[in-house]
Structure formats: C-alpha cells, structure tokens
C-alpha cells in the first residue's frame, strides 16, 4: 500500500493494533461498512463484459505443462510453440460464434474478440448482464468507495455454458500498483525529490548509500533534567542537516545495485541481456517515461533508450493508455510504477530491449488482456508484473479473475515464458483486508499466488563502503517513537507504533502446492519464490516527472516496493536466458528450487548481526532505572526472533525513533525458504552459471 505526500499512516497503525488486540481476544474485527451491500446497481447502466472461453483438452494441457517442468520427464523444458498450443488447446472460431450469438440474444453488443479466441468482449446494460449470467449486481462499500460487485458466481445456461470459463466486468474492482515511495516513517509522507540539475555526489546520484551507519549513543533530557533516556545502537540514514547530494534518507544508484548483486562481473563479460526482450506490463504508463529514463541512464552511465531498444505498445489499440490527473493514473501512482519498472529493469540488464505493454486502465480485464497480448505475440521470454490485490479479495468478490489470471500464467509457462509477479507491500495483508475490504483474514497476493508465475518478494538491503551486501533482512518495518520534537524530551514509555509496510507472502487458499515446492512446508502454493531489494528505506533512485506532464521538472526520488524487486529479478532472468543460448528457458520458479545452495543467498540474520540493535535506559528518579531492551523497542515481533534496529531522526519533526527491519507483520524471515524472501536472493554469476547448468544439461 503506497502512502504518498500529505497522507498519514497513523490510521493504519491504529487499525493494526485494533486488529492485533482483537485477535488476542479471539474476536473478529472488520472495517465499518467495508464489504457491506448498500443496494442494487442501476439496471440501465452500461458496462463492458468480457467472456473468457474454456480451452479444449484442458486436462491434457495441465499434464503437458507438468511434464515440461518435471526434470525426470523426456519433455523437460521442451516448450510448446504457439502453433501447437492453438492447434491442440485454444478455443475455436466456432466457440466464439456460439458465445457471440448468446450475447446478442441478451442485447449485448460484441466489441472485440481475442486473436486466438480466448475472450469475447461486449457491451450492454446491467439488467441485460444480470439476465444473461443469472446474477444480482449490487453496490458495495469497498476501500471507502462505492463499487459494483456481483452477488454470486455467474452461470450460463444451455450448451453455451460449457464454453464459458469466466466472466469479467460484472464488478468494477481493480489492481493496485506495488510501488512504494521512501517516506519519513515519522510522518508517513514521501521525502521531497531533488531536481535533476543537482550535481551528482560521489556516494549515489543524490541520496546517501550508507543506510546503516555505525552505532551511536544519544541522551535525551526533559528541560535539561529528569526524566532522561539514553539509547545506543545502529544509526539509520543521514543526519537531518545533510543536503543534496547525499540527502536523507538513503538510496542506491545503478552501479551500487549492480555491484551488490554481482551483476558487474556479468556485465563485464557482456552478459547484459543482449538479444533478450524484457516485457513490462503496466496500466496507464507515464507520459514522460522515455525522457525520464534517459536522464536516469545518462546519470548512471547506462545506454540510452531509443527506438531500437525501447518500445511502448498499447495492448488495446493505439493511444488508449495515457496518464492524467483524472483517470486514476496519478492517484494510483502508476506514473511512478512505470518509471521504476523501466529504469530498474534497464539498470540490471542494460543490453536488453524493453517493451512496455500498457493497459488503458488498471481493471482486471485490461491488465489481463495486456499480459495475454504480450504472451500471444511472443514479445519476450520474460514478463514483469508489479501489481496485484490480496488473493482473498478475489476469492470473495471476483473469483472469475482467479481463473483468468491463472490460465494466462499457465499459457506463459507452457510457451517457456517466465512471468514474474510482485508479492505486494503490505505484509500478510491483514490490515489491508480489514480496512479496505471488511475481510478479517491474512492473505498472500494475487497473481503471484499462481503456481505458473514466479512470485518475487522483497528484502531490506544494506551495503558496505565497497557496495557489497553487508547484511539483508526480509523487508518489514516497525517503528517505535522515543522522543518528542526538539529539544527532544524522551517519550516515556517509548511508543510502539507498530508495522508500517513489508513484503507480501504466505500460503494460498486457492492453489495446491506445485511439485517444485515439495520440500516447502504446507499443503498449498507458498509465496514468494525469490526476492531482491524492495524496502523503500533501502530503496533506489529514480528520475521521474511526478505529474507525468512533458516539460515539467523531473526529480530524483527514492522508491522501493516489490515493484522494484520484480523488474530487477526479471532483468536477471533475461540474462539467464541470454547465457543459456538465447532461450526461452521457461518459468523461473520450478528451476529455482533445483539450484545448488550457493546460487541463491539465504536471507537469514545471525546473532552477530543483532549485537548492535538499539537498547536504552530511562532514568526518572525516585523510580529505579528502566532498561529498554532491543526486543521491547522492536515490538510487535510476532514470530520474528532476529531483526536489525537503528536510531532514526526525522528531518521534518526532529523526533527520534527506532526503526526495526525484518519485522513483517505475521510473516517471518528465517533459514532456508521463508514466506518473506522465498529461497533468498540471486547470487550474481554463480546464480547464472547454475541456471545455465540446470537448463542445458537435461
């Protein structure tokens, strides 16, 4: 969940504690009015319906894909061609004709048909749709707004029913981007960007790359006397007096991230994605993406994006995807999403082509069609999706979307295309599910939950002075307030403000556990599979025009979220395709679980990492001294045992806080696979060599 300028996180934090207290008491809690039906939808309202058709021989396709990713099968990594798929499994023109006739009989006008007959799109009234699909369409309070939701699963009578796999458009829910701005944890507002004209610093373009500094000791008094509090431990970020370059908080440039993940060694050997195409699917796009990305490239020593290595494609036709202040792009931060995706895929694989496939909006239907367009047309071997919604929301309000997205991901896997999907930025989604949807449950993110997609989670990544990884935690941030504003009298007792944001993950309630996860606990699909840097507090620099208006000033800002880790890993996988002879080498997830240990770096803190976590002593005579342990200052920890905490001073309020990294709601980072970071992070050349050995020796 992205909270940008002027929007406080206090309400989310309060709700977090209400949820925790209710769970401890054994009672349920849901946001007032959310998920509440408030009446039927206007029968005359015009809506667009998309009918997705059943495949032919679906069981045979499922079996074929299982064999493709079974290393003991003679079909291992022998992918289907699009021609083979169409001949054996795709819906037919006859199927489309029958569905078209059905829609026409219910006063619905067909507006488009998929090139391979996967869907038929039509327009009609709510009343006609209710009659056609035997549903009641209601208005419901969701995320603080009125939305359209069907009250039951749609059905189609007669012979046509056997042709229909899913019906979209009865609801008007949509996907959310997983981009997250680096923000002042004390205020919940994003740090101000720095004009691109500012002179680059030696330590990053603008922002400091020294995120975790040496331990410091600070004593705070009350008007120069008691009570006092003294705290000692790691320090996060720059001093509040620092200015650009190297202004607070912190943020990495391209060279720093390349070195951190061992990509510089690969780039020196011309393993940079040359010959590969990275597909990025987004909604709306950014009107300034090419200019912004080239300013980013210039300042990072990367090749410029030109007509020969960068293209923008509107999946629903020319000119349908634009970013404006009124169509949901700016409010949904899709201009930042697009910028982060393109610039950081380019930073990690600067030799690869990039094709940005845009949907005209963030509706389920249009983003699904954008993914299908990229897959059907074989645009690239790798696709990045940096958007989603909690799985349980789809299961409860839009189960048709689960059918559609899983089918699209299976088609990609069958053709040897790896679709990476970010796992989300709200931890276990408990607070989001409660606050926005009135659902009292944890949930992994969709569409990363599909067994045919590769789920990409996130880490908090701290570098040393040589830009190597000093330590990593799973991305999850807690905050505790220890002083008030200048002159900084201590807060007694310290105020635990709780969980702010973190990598999504967890167990699906929809999909069975795939065979490639046989050694992972649980009965259902577990997410994520792999991870890379995602914490916006250890985020990366982007160059972006914030309002997406050409000619307006561009800024250097810091962003993260699993919207960062997904395109970065997608870029790494494109290099794996290049190194293996050009590919395709297939869906990443099943291959990742076959790799030797050294190929993937486990994200697992040791006690050595935690010795300098923040602790303190409060003196308030005549009461005895009160010791504040690192554990107490890090609460709530849930099942988390090992974490990294650091002192932080807010540049805006001047308050001091303790930030705790590695505390991701109920999700936990630990040895081996875990539900925050998956298997861990790719280990540069060792990772690429291991992938090549796996896909070429069988």
Describe what you observe in this structure.
With 698 residues, this protein is of the alpha+beta class. Helix content is 26%, strand content 29%. Helix 8 packs parallel to helix 9 (334-348), helix 9 packs parallel to helix 14 (562-579) and helix 14 packs across helix 17 (684-696). The longest helix is centred in the last third of the chain and has 18 residues, at 562-579. Residues 1-12 and 20-27 have low confidence and may be disordered.
Short description:
By secondary structure, this protein is of the alpha+beta class.
Number of domains: 2
Mean pLDDT: 92
CATH C-level of the largest domain: Alpha Beta
User: What is the assembly state of the chains in this entry?
Assistant: single chain
**Structural category:** alpha+beta
For the structure shown, list the relevant keywords.
single chain; 698 residues; alpha+beta; Rossmann fold; 2 domains; eight-stranded mixed sheet; four-stranded antiparallel sheet; 38 strands; 29% strand; globular; disordered N terminus
What topology emerges from the helices and strands here?
Layout: H1 10-25, E1 36-40, E2 46-53, H2 58-68, H3 82-88, H4 93-105, E3 109-113, E4 119-125, H5 126-133, E5 137-142, E6 145-150, E7 164-168, E8 176-177, E9 180-181, E10 183-184, E11 189-190, E12 194-195, E13 207-208, E14 212-222, E15 225-236, E16 247-250, H6 254-260, H7 263-268, E17 277-283, H8 289-300, E18 310-314, H9 334-348, E19 353-359, H10 364-376, E20 382-385, E21 387-390, H11 391-397, H12 399-415, E22 418-422, H13 430-437, E23 445-446, E24 454-463, E25 469-474, E26 476-483, E27 490-502, E28 506-512, E29 524-527, E30 530-533, E31 540-544, E32 555-560, H14 562-579, H15 588-592, E33 600-601, E34 615-619, E35 626-628, H16 630-633, E36 644-649, E37 656-661, E38 681-682, H17 684-696
Parallel strand pairs: 13-16, 17-19, 17-20, 18-19, 20-22, 22-24, 24-30
Antiparallel strand pairs: 1-5, 2-4, 2-7, 3-4, 5-6, 8-21, 9-32, 10-11, 12-32, 14-15, 15-34, 21-23, 24-25, 26-27, 26-37, 28-29, 31-32, 33-38, 34-35, 36-37
Helix pairs in contact: 1-13, 8-9, 9-14, 10-12, 11-12, 14-17
């Amino acid at each position: 969940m992205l909270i940008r300028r002027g929007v406080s996180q206090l309400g989310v934090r309060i709700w977090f504690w209400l949820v925790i207290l209710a769970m401890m008491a054994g009672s349920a809690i849901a946001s007032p009015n959310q998920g509440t039906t408030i009446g039927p939808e206007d029968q005359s309202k015009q809506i667009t319906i998309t009918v997705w058709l059943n495949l032919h021989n679906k069981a045979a396709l499922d079996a074929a894909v299982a064999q493709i990713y079974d290393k003991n099968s003679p079909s291992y990594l022998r992918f289907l061609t699009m021609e083979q798929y169409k001949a054996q499994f795709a819906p037919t023109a006859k199927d489309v004709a029958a569905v078209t006739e059905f829609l026409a009989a219910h006063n619905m006008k067909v507006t488009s048909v998929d090139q391979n007959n996967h869907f038929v799109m039509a327009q009609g009234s709510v009343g006609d749709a209710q009659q056609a699909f035997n549903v009641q369409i209601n208005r419901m309070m969701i995320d603080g707004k009125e939305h359209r939701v069907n009250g039951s699963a749609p059905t189609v009578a007669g012979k046509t029913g056997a042709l229909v796999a899913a019906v979209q458009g009865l609801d008007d829910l949509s996907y959310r981007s997983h981009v997250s701005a680096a923000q002042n944890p004390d205020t919940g507002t994003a740090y101000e960007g720095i004009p691109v004209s500012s002179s680059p610093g030696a330590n990053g373009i603008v922002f400091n790359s020294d995120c975790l500094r040496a331990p410091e000791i600070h004593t705070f008094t009350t008007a120069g006397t008691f009570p006092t509090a003294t705290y000692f431990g790691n320090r996060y970020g720059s001093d509040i007096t620092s200015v650009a370059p190297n202004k607070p908080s912190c943020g990495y440039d391209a060279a720093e991230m390349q070195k951190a993940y061992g990509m510089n060694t690969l780039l020196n050997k011309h393993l940079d994605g040359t010959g590969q195409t990275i597909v990025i699917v987004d909604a709306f796009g950014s009107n300034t993406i090419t200019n912004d990305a080239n300013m980013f490239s210039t300042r990072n020593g990367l090749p410029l994006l030109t007509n020969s290595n960068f293209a923008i494609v509107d999946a629903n036709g020319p000119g349908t995807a634009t970013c404006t202040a009124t169509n949901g792009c700016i409010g949904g931060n899709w201009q930042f999403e697009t910028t982060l995706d393109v610039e950081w895929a380019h930073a990690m694989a600067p030799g690869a082509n990039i094709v940005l496939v845009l949907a005209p909006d963030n509706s389920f239907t249009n983003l699904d069609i954008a993914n299908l367009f990229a897959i059907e047309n074989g645009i690239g071997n790798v696709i990045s999706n940096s958007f989603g919604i909690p799985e349980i929301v789809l299961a409860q309000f839009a189960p048709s979307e689960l059918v559609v997205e899983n089918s699209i991901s299976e088609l990609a896997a069958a053709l040897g295309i790896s679709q990476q999907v970010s796992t989300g930025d709200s931890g276990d989604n408990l607070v989001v599910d409660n606050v926005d949807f009135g659902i009292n449950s944890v949930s992994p993110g969709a569409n990363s939950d599909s067994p045919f997609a590769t789920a990409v989670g996130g880490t908090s990544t701290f570098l040393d002075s040589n830009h190597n990884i000093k330590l990593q935690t799973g991305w999850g941030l807690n905050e505790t307030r220890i002083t008030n504003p200048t002159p900084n009298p201590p807060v007694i007792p310290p105020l635990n403000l709780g969980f702010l944001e973190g990598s999504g993950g967890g167990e699906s309630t929809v999909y069975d556990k795939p065979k490639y996860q046989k050694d992972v606990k649980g009965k259902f699909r577990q997410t994520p599979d792999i991870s890379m840097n995602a914490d916006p507090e250890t985020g990366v620099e982007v160059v972006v025009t914030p309002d997406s208006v050409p000619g307006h000033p561009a800024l250097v800002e810091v962003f993260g979220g699993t919207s960062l880790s997904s395109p970065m890993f997608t870029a790494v996988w494109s290099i794996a395709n290049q190194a293996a002879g050009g590919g395709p080498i297939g869906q990443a997830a099943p291959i990742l679980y076959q790799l030797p240990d050294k190929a993937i770096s486990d994200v697992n803190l040791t006690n050595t990492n935690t010795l300098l976590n923040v602790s303190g002593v409060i003196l308030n005579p005549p009461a005895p001294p009160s010791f504040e342990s690192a554990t107490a200052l890090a609460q709530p920890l849930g099942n988390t045992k090992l974490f990294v905490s650091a002192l932080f001073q807010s540049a805006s309020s001047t308050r001091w806080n303790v930030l705790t990294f590695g505390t991701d709601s109920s999700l936990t980072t630990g040895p081996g696979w875990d539900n925050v970071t998956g298997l861990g992070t790719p280990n540069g050349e060792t990772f690429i060599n291991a992938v090549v050995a796996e896909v070429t020796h069988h």
